[in-house]
Amino acid sequence: MSYNSSSIGSGSRTARRTFEFGRTHVVRPKGKHQATIVWLHGLGDKGSSWSQLLETLPLPNIKWICPTAPTRPVAIFGGYPCTAWFDMGDLSEEGPDDLEGLDASAAHVANLLSTEPADIKLGIGGFSMGAATALYSATCRILGQYGNGNSYSINLSAVVGLSGWLPCSRTLKSRMDRSHDAARHAASLPILLCHGLGDDVVAYKHGERSAQVLSSVGFRNLTFRTYNGLGHYTVPEETDAVCNWLTAMLGLEGSRS
Asked: Which residues form the Phospholipase/carboxylesterase/thioesterase domain (predicted)?
């Protein structure tokens, strides 16, 4: 599926970027369908990698949608192209945010969720850069708009981020201060963040800082879990925590094991 950035209206006369998203993999619920979650892979990965893991989780009431990011030049790799939800140079708060790329990926995710039945709870989760995109989508939800000002209309019930970080963190508070409903929406949106102390790709301090920023602007229903010795990958202890949290937050039937 292609995505032209002008379709969400930047109002700019600069060159338009067209994003060609890769294949989307779907894991159907094995039981009664109660929730749909879009799960986003990390930098250089693809949707099929996570669909295989998600299919093994004891969450029979969840439909998983695992899209694949566009292949694009990425600054952190010196412009070498790979699958990425947005462009990135480094993780410092002073670094520029690729707002156009973030908006395009958040809109792609919202489009995938927009056709789900009205009685199905909706969520977004991801790993590393996928977690960053999920958290960016959470801020779009509570602000009611994308970074470019266009309306965001998906009602999220849960957001999960593993080994990730919060993009656009330095401007979040000022944007929320201009919105009447943002604080109320933030307080009611459950977020689970998990990060390993041994992460040598996205350092633990970035995950911790992201949780602090989200809490400070009003995300009251936020859980931040730390894992000793965990690097930039996931382990059964972490996926068990995700399963238990989703079961509780989404009111799912079936096993919590």
From this structure: 25-248
DSSP lists the bridge partners of residue 64 as 27, 37
DSSP 87: -
Give the span between the Cα atoms of 184 and 10, in whole angstroms: 27
Among 48, 215, 232, 240, the active-site one is: 232
DSSP 145: B
Residues 96 and 89 sit within 8 Å (Cβ to Cβ): yes
Q: Is the pTM of this model over 0.85?
A: yes
Q: What is the pLDDT of residues 157-169, one digit of tens each?
A: 999 999 999 999 9
Distances (CA, A) of 203 to 54, 92, 95, 163, 206: 25, 11, 16, 8, 6
DSSP-derived letter for residue 232 is S
Q: Which of 10, 105, 128, 210 is catalytic?
A: 128
d(CA 111, CA 116): 10
Check 195, 199, 206, 210 and give the catalytic one: 199
Name the residue among 143, 108, 130, 159 with its Cα closest to residue 3.
108
Bridge partners, 101 (sequence order): none
Helix (H) or strand (E) holding 105: helix 99-113
In the residue annotation, 199 being an active-site residue is answered as yes
pLDDT tens profile 32-84? 999 999 999 999 999 999 999 999 999 999 999 999 999 999 999 999 999 99
Sign for the CA dihedral angle at 60, 188, 181, 102 comes to: negative
End-to-end CA distance of the chain: 36
Q: At what angle do helices 129-143 and 169-177 cross, to 10 degrees?
A: 10
d(CA 119, CA 174): 34
Amino acid at 210: S
